[in-house]
UniProtKB/TrEMBL annotation:
Homology family: Belongs to the methylamine corrinoid protein family.
B12-binding domain boundaries: 94-216
Keywords: Cobalt, Metal-binding, Methanogenesis, Repeat
A GO biological process held by the record: tetrahydrofolate metabolic process
CDD domains associated with the record: corrinoid_protein_B12-BD (cd02070)
GO cellular component, one term: cytosol
Listed GO MF terms: cobalamin binding; cobalt ion binding; methionine synthase activity
InterPro entries: Cbl-bd_cap, Cobalamin-bd, Cobalamin-bd_sf, Corrinoid_p, Met_Synthase/Corrinoid, Meth_synthase_dom
UniProt cross-references to Gene3D superfamilies, sorted A to Z: Cobalamin-binding domain, Methionine synthase domain
Stated name of the protein: Trimethylamine corrinoid protein
Lineage: superkingdom: Archaea
Residue ranges constituting the B12-binding N-terminal domain according to the UniProt record: 1-92
């Protein structure tokens, strides 16, 4: 029987090989072995997706490769989702979070994993989707009054637009009423500090921990 670490390495390799069947096989093996689905997603599938993103940025891979890897990862996450939902705590609503992938960025899987984990943790999550215009983030705050607004970016070229979310919330007079969270492969704590975001989430588990802390 494979160890957690071995499954994570296989999961990472399968995503990077765009091999949907292999990703599903790893996910199913994780369930049957009673191993940690969250760790498989973060240290296996997401790690592979991050490397694909790096290669895309470097020009060694192209958009069809990114989409193929994302679809392979999505297939694995779909298999694991029922296991993730079993981890859900049926507690009181911890708060509302609106989250989306920033304008110009079509990558959705990492953001969707964060959204799933936040739901499991007891948050009401409004998933804004991908390629979300800056104005839609502002409108989401106006209409839904979330406690936290999250934006995800997988590329440095789209990451810069997270600055505009901060600026347009201020212009609309809404910034003081909501906490902002940023994440994605190229995003760092230094970047979050620079643009004035309240929360930097390195991964889904980190997002849950920091969102819980922000609501205390």
């Amino acid at each position: 029987m494979a160890t957690q670490e071995e499954l994570q390495e296989r999961g990472k390799a399968a995503v990077m090989d765009f091999d949907e069947d292999a990703v599903v096989e790893v996910a199913e093996e994780c369930i049957s072995a009673g191993l940690d689905p969250v760790a498989l997603i973060q240290e296996g599938f997401t790690a592979g997706m991050n490397e694909i993103g790096d290669q895309f940025e470097q020009g060694t891979l192209f958009l069809p490769h990114v989409i193929a890897a994302s679809e392979a990862m999505s297939a694995g996450v779909e298999v694991l989702t029922p296991e993730l939902e079993k981890l859900s705590t049926k507690s009181e609503n911890k708060g509302t979070i609106a989250i989306g992938t920033i304008e110009g960025d079509i990558h959705t899987i990492g953001k969707d994993i964060v959204a799933t984990m936040l739901k499991i943790a007891g948050f009401n999550v409004i998933n804004l989707g991908r390629d979300v215009p800056i104005a839609d983030y502002v409108n989401a705050v106006k209409e839904n009054k979330p406690d936290i607004l999250g934006s995800s970016a997988l590329m440095t070229t789209t990451m810069v637009l997270q600055t505009q979310v901060e600026e347009q919330l201020k212009e609309a007079g809404l910034r003081d009423g909501v906490k902002t969270m940023v994440g994605g492969a190229p995003v760092t704590q230094d970047w979050a500090n620079k643009i004035g975001a309240d929360i930097y989430a390195e991964n889904a588990a980190d997002a849950v921990t920091k969102c819980k802390a922000a609501m205390e």
